[in-house]
Design brief:
This protein has 168 residues and is of the alpha+beta class. The protein is 51% helix and 16% strand. Strand 2 and strand 3 form a beta hairpin. The longest helix is centred in the N-terminal third of the chain and has 17 residues. The radius of gyration is 18 Å and the shape is globular. The termini are far apart.
Length: 168
């Protein structure tokens, strides 16, 4: 982590739980973040307490010693009704990861999201929300958001500046 950007341990745990999209033990989180298990557990309890004190759609759940970040009970149907397409929460998390990165190698995405990401990628390609191009010097693919994604979610894509002097 860069010295000029300090992100708290609870915030980093929250990011890991969001991106992994599956329950993780404190040992697994400890391995990912390279922090002691005791610091991880203290921060998880701080996250749980913080969520319980706020009126928020998300919560940290502890089931059999594994933690997950999820929607509060009763909000699943609302979210599904708001989505312009019928995709699972796991596929939506994979799409969100691609959107956050703007451009990511398929191999890096699978490392972040797990092997289930291959099915999510197939689904997202089938509905034209992402584009895939073979990496020039490697065996993986670059994944980026498609024009259809931007139209569907009314997100304005980055506009590339063109320098008229360089175009000549």
């Amino acid at each position: 982590m860069s010295d000029d950007i300090k992100i708290s341990l609870p915030a980093r745990i929250e990011a890991v739980l969001y991106l992994k999209g599956k329950p993780l033990s404190s040992d697994e989180i400890s391995d990912i973040l390279k922090e002691s298990k005791s610091h991880i557990e203290e921060s998880i309890f701080a996250l749980i307490a913080g969520y319980s004190q706020r009126d928020t759609a998300l919560e940290i759940k502890d089931k059999n010693g594994k933690y997950s970040l999820q929607l509060r009970q009763g909000l699943g149907e609302l979210v599904q009704n708001l989505l312009p397409v019928d995709i699972s929460g796991a596929t939506l998390r994979t799409l969100a990861t691609i959107a956050l990165k703007k451009r990511i190698l398929q191999s890096d995405l699978v490392e972040l999201r797990g092997s289930g990401a291959y099915e999510h990628i197939k689904e997202l390609l089938a509905i034209n929300f992402i584009e895939r191009k073979r990496q020039r010097d490697g065996r993986s693919f670059w994944l980026t958001l498609s024009e259809k994604f931007h139209r569907t979610f009314t997100v304005i894509p980055d506009i590339k500046e063109t320098d008229p002097k360089k175009a000549a």
